[in-house]
Task: structure prediction
Amino acid sequence: MNVDMLFKIAGVGILVAVITQLLKQSGRDEMATIAAIVGLVIGLIMMLDLVNNLFESVRQVFQLY
Amino acid sequence: MAIFQFSAFALLATSVVLLIRSYRPEIALQVSIITGVMLLVYLVTQVSGVLDSLRALAERYGLSMSYIGILVRIIGIAYLAQFAGEICKDAGESAMASKVELGGRIMILAAALPAAVSLLELVASMLPVNNK
Result:
């Protein structure tokens, strides 16, 4: 349990929210959408490693295939 | 104690999720998934000690190890299926959550079937009707 990862993704979320707001205010809606998608992908990539870690440890401990 | 750390982590993550949810619901979901994964990884390390002592106990009293293995495997399947189902339910996809739970149930049935079949065979061999 480390809090760093949590705050990292929360920071990405807040940053993306601010960026999308700014881009929407300046009338570039499509750039705002792209920024939202990029934030989502960054979060997914951070998540992937942890979820893989969970699956591996569950597989090892419970001797699943 | 570990439980204080555990609860404090969950409460902190809940407040972070609530903060982000109004701006970016999808990233709030990711934060909650990551929190769940971290808590479960921590729990798995705790559970492995319990399972080791359970195996040692079973070995001492001469229980069959294959049945203990089936039991442990079922616990693992239920663990993962419940984790994924709860996350789907949290995100509002209760249909997907019920599919995941159905999948977990079927996997558990498939894992438990050999033990049930051997129990039936044992009962059938005890019955006098079948002793041809």
About this structure: DSSP finds four helices and no strands in chain B. Chain B has a mean pLDDT of 89.
